[in-house]
Write a structure and sequence with these properties.
Radius of gyration: 19 Å
Strand content: 5-15%
Helix content: 55-70%
Largest sheet: 3 strands, antiparallel
Number of helices: 5
Structural class: alpha+beta
Low-confidence stretches: none
Mean pLDDT: 89
Shape: elongated
Order of helices and strands: HHEHHEEH
Amino acid sequence: MNEDLDRVWKALADPTRRAILDLLRRRPRTTSEIVERIPNLSRFGVMKHLGVLREAGLVQARDEGRNVVNALNVVPIRLIYERWVSDYQDQWARKLTRLKRSLDGE
C-alpha cells in the first residue's frame, strides 16, 4: 500500500502531470487531445507523462479504434486524502468546535 502511494506522490509532484490530471478531471480525453492542450510538450513527452500517471493508477486508458482514451481514476487521490488530510481535518474541526464553545461561554 505505501509503495503504491509513493508512486502517486511522485506522479503528483510534476506540474505537467498535474495539468494532465486537471484536463482529465473535466472528462476523459484521447492522447491526441491532451497533446493539443499541452503545446509546449511533444507527443512523446505527453505519452511519457501518461505512462507515469498510469503506473501510479491515476489514469486508466482504453483503446477506442486507433485512439487511446485516458480517464482520471480518483481512487488513489482519495486514499491520500483519507490518510493525510481527513485526520487533520477532523482535528481542526474539533479544535474549532472547542474554540466556539469557549467563546460562547459554555
